[in-house]
Write a structure and sequence with these properties.
The chain has 2 domains: about 170 residues, no CATH class; about 260 residues, no CATH class. It has 3 helices and 36 strands. The longest helix has 13 residues. It is globular.
């Protein structure tokens, strides 16, 4: 491939072989996979190594523009940039960070801060195990992952944010095909961190070969340490989860996992997300919580079959090992809609495992059948929700032939023909998250327990609708 940068760059070793030949007056720098060696980062003489560019770029630079091509560098970002550096693909989806056979891809920020990584396709094709992105340590802060396509990794979490990283935003990306492993790996592992926002992303799997029942949750937020470090102040909003192909004892989104004798996650907001139950693979629930406190799940839409893998349709709230009793778990203004009428249990988890679990003003639908509770847990029936609505929200339940947002580099477009991640996001929301004008969800939300905007970022106004999507003006 002519535009392919050669080899894995070990920055600390190879830097001495390059001569940094100057700077760009506008504080904008360039790298191109097919450039000649000895460049100076200018548009006329771009650097030919992505990894080297990140090593030598000044700390007060504004941007690093990455030309179309294939980059096989190992990217190590250890600088604290004085400005917020934007590391950006010149054309979204056309700058590819891909490992060669036998090599590995890893974007690492062990001590870096103040940068955005935007517009790349990142994938692991060799079969060697690595995170695609690792943001770790107390110095990893003020970092944005934006408008990237992360897909097809063979081993370990796609993106791991851990060990004190903070002020991290993951926004407007697509994640698909995490490792098909029979143990805990995820698209996002958010672990012993604080002030993290995960928003406007799409998460799904569409494996071509089995196993279709081995992968773990799409996102886990937890504390894996044996010390009382804190995972708190996390927002998961305006995301789409679909096409479950994982273990039957895992949910789309999981808070807490490792059975420690302290709260594994605290002060977590989950709002304006769309969960689609289009797959026939059994799932634990849409949402699971273990050993946490201060969790709010509001204005979300769960739509489709979501075949129960022995647990529940909507939520599982439980303890494992030495977990403390869960405390202060709130469910407000959500839509839970199974058009097939096949819910086994709506929610599960023993009463002794949790306290102050509140369901209020949610809309429930089980194809016209009763909502099956679990009287051993916190939800015995819809009577446990003092303002429950039981009615068909009138969503589009025809989920059999969803066109998945998979990127075709050769065509420079997604399978639907759309060119951008945002177009794909809006396509899925408008087709599967929007309801008809006569929906009973319209104007029925309690405003005090609603976000100001809906899943598309539109203002909700004074009479908001229940669920992620807002039609009322």
């Amino acid at each position: 491939m002519k535009d392919k940068a050669k080899g894995v760059i070990i920055l600390s070793v190879l830097a001495s072989f390059y001569i940094y030949a100057g700077s760009c007056s506008a504080a904008n720098y360039y790298v191109a996979a097919d450039a000649e060696p000895g460049g100076d980062g200018t548009p006329e003489k771009p650097w030919n190594s992505f990894g080297f560019a990140l090593q030598v770029i000044p700390e007060d630079a504004d941007s690093l523009i990455v030309k179309d091509g294939v980059y096989t560098d190992t990217l190590s970002i250890s600088k604290k940039f004085k400005k917020h550096l934007v590391i950006k693909a010149e054309n979204p989806g056309r700058a590819r960070i891909i490992n060669e056979e036998g090599e590995r891809v890893q974007l690492i920020s062990s001590s870096g801060s103040n940068f955005t990584l935007e517009g790349f396709e990142v994938t692991n094709l060799s079969g060697r195990g690595e995170y695609l992105v690792l943001l770790t340590g107390n110095n990893a802060q003020n970092i944005v992952l934006k408008n990237n396509i992360f897909h097809d990794s063979f081993h370990n979490d796609m993106v791991k944010i851990n060990a004190g990283a903070h002020n991290i935003t993951v926004t407007g990306n697509i994640f698909y095909n995490m490792p098909q492993e029979n143990y805990g790996v995820q698209f996002l592992d958010v672990n012993v961190v604080y002030n993290v926002v995960i928003q406007d992303n799409i998460f799904f799997t569409n494996y071509k070969q089995p196993p279709f029942n081995a992968a773990s949750s799409h996102i886990v937020i937890k504390n894996s340490t044996q010390t009382r470090a804190i995972t708190k102040d996390i927002t998961v909003q305006r995301n789409i989860f679909l096409n479950w192909q994982g273990k039957s004892d895992q949910p789309f989104l999981l808070l807490g996992e490792d059975a420690w004798p302290f709260y594994e996650a605290e002060e977590i907001m989950v709002q304006n997300n769309l969960f689609l139950g289009n797959s026939k693979v059994p799932i634990e629930a849409a949402f699971g919580v273990k050993g946490c406190r201060g969790i709010t799940f509001r204005a979300n839409t769960v739509s489709g079959d979501l075949p129960c893998g022995g647990w529940a349709y909507a939520t599982r709230i439980n303890r494992e090992g030495k977990n403390l009793v869960l405390k202060d778990i709130y469910f407000y203004n959500n839509i839970w809609a199974d058009p097939t009428g096949t819910m086994k249990r709506f929610s599960c988890g023993g009463k002794k495992d949790s306290e102050n679990v509140i369901y209020k003003n949610n809309l429930y639908w089980n194809g016209g059948k009763d909502i099956p509770g679990d009287c051993q847990g916190q939800f015995c029936s819809v009577a446990d929700d003092p303002k429950a609505l039981t009615a068909d929200p009138l969503l589009n339940y025809d989920q059999e032939n969803i066109i998945f947002p998979e990127w075709d580099f050769s065509k420079k477009s997604f399978s639907s023909g759309n060119k951008t991640i945002r177009e794909e996001f809006e396509r899925l929301v408008n087709k599967y998250g929007a309801f008809k004008e006569n929906s009973p969800a319209r104007g029925k939300a309690e405003q005090e327990n609603m976000p100001a905007e809906d899943i598309l970022g539109n203002p909700r106004g004074k009479n908001p609708d229940i669920g992620a999507f807002n039609l009322s003006k």
